[in-house]
Every structure is written in structure tokens, then in C-alpha cells.
Amino acid sequence: AARPALCPPAGSRTMSAAEDAEWLRRVRKQFGNIAGEHKEINLEEFKSALQVKESFFAERFFALFDSDGSGTISLEELLKALSLLVHGSQTDKLRFLFQVYDVDARGGVPAVTRRGARSPRAGSGCIDPDELRLVLRWCLRESAIALPEERLADLTWALFEAADKDHSGSITFEELREELEGFPEVMENLTISAASWLKPPPPTERSCRPRYLTRAYWHNHRGKLAFLGGYISLNLLLFALAALRHAGLGGWLVVARGCGQCLNFNCSFLAVLMLRRCLTWLRATPIAKVLPLDQHVVFHQLVGYVVLALAAVHTGAHVANFSRLARQDGRHALAEYLLSARPGAGGLGGTASQTGLALQGLLAAMLAFSSPCIRRSGHFEVFYWTHLSYISVWTLLILHGPHFWKWFAVPGCLFALEKVAGLAWRRAGGLRIVEVNLLPSKVTHLVIERPQFFRYEPGDYIYLNIPAIATYEWHPFTISSAPEQQETLWLHIRSLGQWTNKLYEYFQQPELPSPEPKPLSRSLREKRCRRWAQVGAVGAQLLANAGCYIDGPYGTPTRRIFTSEHAVLIGAGIGITPFASILQSIMYRYRRRKQSCPSCHYSWCEDLRDKEMTLRKVDFIWINRDQKHFEWFVSLLTKLEMEQAEQEPGEPFLEMHMYMTSALSKNDMKAIGLQMALDLLAAKEQRDSITGLRTRTQPGRPDWSKVFGKVAEEKKGKVQVFFCGSPALAKVIRAHCEHFGFRFFKENF
Prior knowledge:
Layout: H1 17-35, E1 40-41, H2 43-49, H3 55-65, E2 73-74, H4 75-87, H5 90-101, H6 129-142, H7 149-163, H8 173-180, H9 184-188, H10 215-220, H11 222-245, H12 251-272, H13 276-282, H14 296-329, H15 334-339, H16 352-368, H17 372-375, H18 380-387, H19 390-400, H20 404-427, E3 433-439, E4 443-449, E5 461-465, E6 475-478, E7 488-494, H21 498-506, E8 531-532, H22 536-545, E9 549-554, E10 566-572, H23 577-593, E11 594-596, E12 603-605, E13 617-624, H24 634-645, E14 654-660, H25 672-685, E15 697-699, H26 704-714, E16 719-724, H27 727-740, E17 743-746
Parallel strand pairs: 10-13, 10-16, 13-14, 14-15, 16-17
Antiparallel strand pairs: 1-2, 3-4, 3-8, 4-7, 5-6, 5-9, 11-12
Protein name: NOX5 oxidase
GO molecular function, one term: superoxide-generating NAD(P)H oxidase activity
Main location: membrane
């Protein structure tokens, strides 16, 4: 997360003289860009520059900065106020905070548009409940939190009763300071999250050596690096052996033969890397600890690029050799060597040149249409149909190279068997979609009948085909239900592309308007804000038409979780889906191990560790952008909390951590009162006001250094971190894992 603009640089409590001068220079420069010739900024310019979502705090800050009540802020006024907030004492900052809250609740923020108006700094000197309620309402809006009025009233009274020490009916400055002393993290770094144009440049972390040369990186990626080393060495060996066999026939021919031998191996290896069923089986064997099976898709893409490069060099070397022969012969042109079948030229019937050129074109097309810009821009069909040309590629390779079939025999047979098994499974009959729930943020929850002999592990995924959406498209989705759930399979599908948007729109009935998302309230555990697509005759017909086919299951890195000692599960947004299955499986295991005394009916849970699960501790971290995203699995998490509460008292086996990135942190002056009120009310009611869970939802983004530092201090065993979310966040978490020596596993997302 970005450091607040007015905070001192990381690692120091105050700015140095050089940093202070640089900061002031930036302020003057940016102020000059906004103020123009008049050297003053008005309220609208201040609003556009300040990082606030609502105008309330911008108007309050503007009013307090405008010391002479002129309706504009000069550079001197701005520098004086900002210097006070940056370099001032805690008392100075608290005094500013108190003045922000000390506003007439009935009259609102006084107007500051004309010179000579009453200065809004002149407050009553105390904060009454109406003023506090007004500010908290704007705090909720600023943090993108929607709560009903009764919850706002509860928050107001929780904070007011805690701060009003003398029960006088108002909060004085001394009472506010006394209450804030109970929140040391707030007192340590109090800021107003200043304007983006005042942010100093982030400090650059300098290292004496690149990350890829550190010992931690090599330790955490030893499997992948060893595999890459073996792969490169094998290619070099194959090239060298082929080159030695054809030494003396000319340099270009030596290069062509060497690349051709490497192509024999790599084109067969491409099939091996996509044997999903075989790879899923290998995950249950000791080989999974040696080979980087989790990276098979990445390696498939890498080998694809290698094949294209080798093919280009192979073709170029042959063209150069043919050009040399054409010059020496004088009777045949280069075009005849390339386009005419000649006995002894290689390949079936001397067609090596023609099949080679065809292969080069097919490989280039496959690579071009496999790029992310094609796959993720709503043109999946282009990728799908061009990628099916692998059948033509392998056929042409058998015709082109006399020895390719020897390399391809075993991988090709396994690949064909997997395809036949998949087709047989699909042709066995379609499955019925039992229920469809349209959840907030365009998430489609599908409930599909589970086939009789369908077995899978927590975190596995399947390929889904719904002919009513697209006849030939198969898309992978993680199973979000536990294997112990015998009757149905759950899929939670976020609408991010063309197919997923079509799926959501297909079940969206125009005659049943979708209600506005409701704020989470006391009844959240029993009833969630959702829309049932099967309601009514039209919905029933949609379900009848929307049969589906599945292919799988296929394994993922999350299969390692139950063999870990201390697992840290991190899900960002819809990235929770693989962990939903795992958490539900844990809940079912709790139920199976629940014991009860026949005499006193005292119940407890036996130790969960067994031959299939060596877990000692699970930390579950869920990061969401806004409040409504928590509605996806909050009922499951509530059940987990209740199940765990029934076991013996002590340190919890499963610890949850919720983060809402749109909410302002406790260090931000626009959110201090709200976060204090949420803490106080959560402690009083033993539940969070945002999600309804016992776990308190933290504002902002996790501080990974503190999170992983706490995990390391617990010393529950070897720590393995499992992540599912955006690639950008994966890089950040991976770097922290390398620093702490944790194993990191990423789900493809």
C-alpha cells in the first residue's frame, strides 16, 4: 500500500533537512501549477487536488486551512497548515482532528466562498452526538461502507459513550485525547492523507545484488530452477549429438539437423505438459515434491516459444543450405528446392520442404492467436480453433521427420487416451444445473448435480461447457464446494470476459429486476442479498435449457495444503474460490471428529491431525475491494467460526483475517473516528459490523511484513503460503515469502 502523503518517510519519525526541503519544493511547484497567476486556490480546486471521495472533508480541511476566512488558500496558509500536520506534535494534530469533528450538525459545513464570512474554525469547543453522527456518516461514505441508519446510531453511541468520560453529553478535546491514547497505532502516525500532488516520490529500495541472485530465491525456486537446468542441458545435448552425426556435411546442415533433433523432443514434450489427468495423478506421488507440476502451463508456454524459435532457425538453415546447393548446381533454382517434392530430400515422398513450410505457418499462427491480448479480449474462439491445429501440426511432423514418431509414440498415445476419456465422460450425458444464484459484483453461483462416481480433492478445478452459452467453448473453474458434499457441485464464476458475462446475462430475468445491494445487517447469517434465477416459469425454463458438461477434475497446488504444517491461505476477491472448498472440508472434518460425553453431554473436537492432514495452524486472509464482495462466502465463514467456537478453548486452529481495501486506514484523519467506533462496537457485540463475523474487518491493505512476521513468530512448523488472485499482488507476496523463507504456491488466475 502507498504510504500516506504527509507521513514521514518509512523508517524515520521525522523528515531530514534535505527531505524537508524537497517536500517543500514539491508543494510550491504543485501549488503553482494549480493556483495560476493569483497564487491562491479556491474550494473547487482544493477538492480536485485532495484525495477524498466526498466533499465533506475537503470542505472541512479547506475551512481550517483558510485561516483568514477569505474563501481562498494562499501558499503561506497551506504551508503553515501542512507543516503543522507533518512536523507538529501529537497535540497539534489532535487539535486539528477535534476541529474537523467540531461542526454544527444541523447547519452543516459553513460556507467559505466570500471574504469576511464567519470563520468556520470558531466551533463550540465540544462535540455533541449529532455532530459525531454527521461526521461518521461521511466517514462511511469516504470508506465506501454502507450500513443502515440503526447501525450508524450504534456506532455513534459506542464512540460517544466511550469518549464522554464525565457523561456531560458532549466530548471535549481532553476527553478525545484520552480516548485516542487507547489506540497507540493511531497516535503514532496521524495524517489527513494529503493531496496526490503533495506525495513525495516513494523511496527506492536498493540491493547490492539482484533478487534472482539471492539465496532465498534459489531455495524457494529450487524445483523450477533444477527443471529448467535439466531442460536446457537436454536440449544442448541433443543438439550436440545431432551436430556430431552430421559433421562434415556443411555448417548450415549441421545447424538444421541439430535444431531438428531438438524439435523432435520439444514437440513431443508439449503434449506431455498438457496431460492434465496424468499430472493430477502425479500430484499424489513423491514426484510432486521434485518436479514443478504447478508450473506445467507456464512451461507449456515456454516450450511453445522454444519450438517456434527452433523451427525458425531450422527452416532458415535449410533455406541457406538450399541456396548454397542451387548456386553450386546451377540447374535447379532455390524455388524448386523449396516447393517441389524430390526423392531423397527427406520426409514422406521427399516432401520435407513443403511440410516444413506448412508447419512454420501453423506454428506462427498458433503462437500469434495464443497471446493474452487475444484470449482476454473476448476472442476466445479464435484461440480455441487455431489451437486445435495441433492435430495438423503433429500429423505434418510425422510426415516431415523420419524419426519424430519414435519421440511421439508414448506421449501421443497418452494424450489420445486422455482425450478419449474426456469425450467418453462428456458423451455419457449432460448434467443438470439445479440452482443459479446471481450474487453481488456479477458473480454467478452455479449448483450442479454431482455425477455418481465423481471424486475430487479440495481446490481442484473442472472444465465447464454450457451449450446454451457457447456450443464448443470449455472454460476452467475451481470447484468451490467440499468433496464431502455428495449431492451437488458449486461453482462461483466472476463475470470478467465474454463467456462469463453471457452466462450472467442468460440467467438475468428482465421481468425480475435485481434489487439494490443491501448493506450487511444482523440478519446476514440467515439471509444474504441474492437473486434466485429459478423463480417463476421463465427461470425454470432457463434451467431446463441450460444443461452442462464437465471435464475433470484436475489438481492444483492447493492439494499440498493438508500436508502442510502451517498453511497461510490468501485470496483476493473471487480468488477465495479454491479456499472455499478447503475451508468447507475442514468444517466437515471438525464435525466428524466432534465427540460428546454421554453423561454430561460435554462436547469437544479431537485433534484434526491424521495421516491425511498434518496441519497445525491455518491462517486465512481474504482481501476485497469493497463491502459487497464479502457477501460471496460470508455464510460459510460464519459457520466455520461457530464450529470452531464449540471446540476446546485455546488458540484457534483456523484464524481469519479480513481486509477491505476501499476503507481508509486508522491513520487517516477521515477515518479515525469510524475505525475507533467499529473497534468499540465489535468488542461490545463480539461481531464485525461490516461482515457480521466475529473477525474484525481491517481497513486498507495488509502490511505483509507484519503479517508474515507474526506467522514466523508462532513457530507452528514449516510455513507454506497459498495464493489465488491477481499476478501483481502475487509478485508482492512472493517477494515477502522469499524474505521470510516461506514456500509460495500460486493458483493460476
